[in-house]
Predict the 3D structure of the following.
Amino acid sequence: MSTDRRPLLFVLLGSALLVTVVIHLSFIPQYFPDDVFMTGLALVAGWVTYTLVFYVAGRLQSSPRELPSMRTADIGIALFLVSLLLGAALDSFGFTPEAILEAYVVPAIGIYVGLALLGWSIGRRTEAINEIVKQ
């Protein structure tokens, strides 16, 4: 059996990307104004698949010789949490998404950049560990 798992990673990348697009373009607009619980579930599911896309991209694009630092993941988690708190603060100050949706652009960008950094960093680290184990 071949030990090259790159084709499987490409399949995982394509399917995770497809699921992310379907969730963000289909389910979130369907539930957003009316059902807060289902909107939250759809967002979390979309965030997980979005992070998985960057995890796979990190595994496919990296070939580290030594174990990479997890500083990028720390920055990603911090950016994600700060952006999430900023969005919650906007909502608590009365700027609800139904009233002023544009106010949530900056927190949304921060959330997605943070998740991308987290997924990328974990993917690079996993690829490095696999290379070390293979030797």
Notes: Residues 105-134 form the longest helix (30 residues). The helical segments are 6-31, 36-61, 71-92, 105-134. The chain has a mean pLDDT of 88.
